[in-house]
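User: ok so my PI wants both of these folded by tonight, can you help

Assistant: No problem, let's get them done. Here's the first:
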Amino acid sequence: MTKELKAEVREQLGKGATNRLRKTGMIPAIVYGHGQPINIAVNERNFNNSFKKISENEIIKLSVGSNSRSVLIKDYQRNYIKGTITHLDFFEIEKGKAIKTHVPIKITGVAPGLREGGILEHSIHELEIECQAENMPEIVEVDISNLVLGHAIHVRDIKPIKGVKIFNKPEQVIVLIVHAKVEVVAALVTPATPAPEATSK
């Protein structure tokens, strides 16, 4: 589902102008891609209400005045002390052109290897892909329901996704079940040295 977001053109640039803009409850941003970059601003409250989590592969219908375009969030800056977004970078999707981006991996199912006492190691959490906008998956599910102790699921094991090219190496491990590390501490028992026998005189 494509989300919608309204924006306005940002006329004044520079550090002072952006700081003043943030104080009015707006987030400075830029739109770039196949056309001329556009400096814009979006309402902070509206953005936070619509985007609880920022995803690089979520298509957004961005309206700037009477014009609208399909974009992705390619980067953002955050004030970690205040917990606020301070800048956004939008990438405009060119119609008919493939997009290269990242999509998160979602693990599903319960691995039998866990019931055998193994530990699940999740090696990669996203895939690098290329596809048309209409074919872009929100997530890629990896089912571990048949994963037993000592076995792994690789990138090559992912079922083909229509219109999607994966750039990760086929042999790259996504998840595996490893044996739990058990440290056995051997107690060293030193036999007591017998007392010397008394010598008769």
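One down. Here's the second:
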Amino acid sequence: MTCPNAKTFRERIGNKAQMVEAVLEFCESREELSDVFHLCSEITVTPSDDRVRRNDNTTVGYVYLIRSGRYHKIGRSNSVGRRSYELATKLPAELTTVHSIQTDDPVGVEAYWHKRFADKRRNGEWFLLDVDDVRAFKRWVRIH
């Protein structure tokens, strides 16, 4: 058995922050890998990456808008790239990440958008949004 090359990891997992997060999730519950977990948890990831820790050690999450065909999904995750990959494996149509909002309250921000577009909900977290709705979502660049 051979180890996949770096390109495979980037394509399947994503950027540096997503890779660190995947390693952390894998190692967290495995006592024999606790040293790897502690090494990776000390890695500082810049705000341009997907996983951000504030100085008070609060983990920042994301509320994302993903499009598949005519429909948009509004959801939350601590890794937009990983979530997109997970969804893409379950849907026949191609997914496109439209926008993501970085926030320390992903539950509250997601609830806001679900309520705002409640009349456009079609199934679960999937909505039939128009261009103006998408523009409104994209105006929320970053929540502090």
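Residues 46-52 have pLDDT under 50 and may be disordered. The longest strand covers residues 59-68. Good luck tonight!
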